[in-house]
Design a protein that fits this description.
alpha+beta; Lipocalin; eight-stranded antiparallel barrel; 8 strands; 40% strand
Length: 159
């Protein structure tokens, strides 16, 4: 009887967490940037949403690895962008709006505040800005069903 009870308890411990899991946020997955210049992977990071480069067009066209050459810190200028986390802190509201985010722009070598809104299941509006959203720029990103993957491996630089 004890063996059967222990086996049942073990079974419950394996099964219950799967049913108690928080539903997957609708933004999680792969997205093409405006103009299909790159691909982004969104994933949960704690209670927030983060994003990393999954694919970059110039890696395919130039056969070279895109690097963070405009980074204000010289030690980071040679790091590959492939798989680099560059979007952090996005707070989901459960209604398709994500606020309080920070986006690092390798084109500018600086961080911008950002927010995102799901327009529909396959369309995302990203707005990066300085100070307030009024002083910013928006892009429309589209969900990717499939996407090539970067070939370089990103290795974080010690801070």
């Amino acid at each position: 009887m004890r063996v059967l009870s222990a086996a049942f308890l073990g079974f419950l411990l394996l099964v219950l967490p799967a049913h108690a899991a928080v539903p997957k946020d609708p933004i999680i997955g792969l997205w093409y940037t405006d103009g299909h210049e790159g691909g982004i992977e969104f994933y949960p990071c704690g209670d927030e949403i983060c994003g990393r480069f999954y694919w970059l067009k110039d890696n395919i066209e130039n056969g070279d690895v895109s690097r963070d050459f405009r980074n204000p810190e010289p030690a980071r200028r040679d790091r590959p962008l492939c798989h680099m986390e560059f979007m952090t802190g996005f707070q989901p509201d459960g209604q398709g709006h994500y606020t309080d985010g920070l986006i690092y722009s390798p084109r500018h070598g600086q961080n911008f505040d950002a927010e995102m809104t799901l327009i529909d299941d396959d369309t995302l509006k990203l707005r990066g800005y300085i100070l307030i959203p009024l002083f910013g720029e928006s892009q429309i990103w589209t969900r990717a069903k499939t996407m090539p993957k970067c070939s370089a491996t990103y290795r974080p630089v010690d801070r």
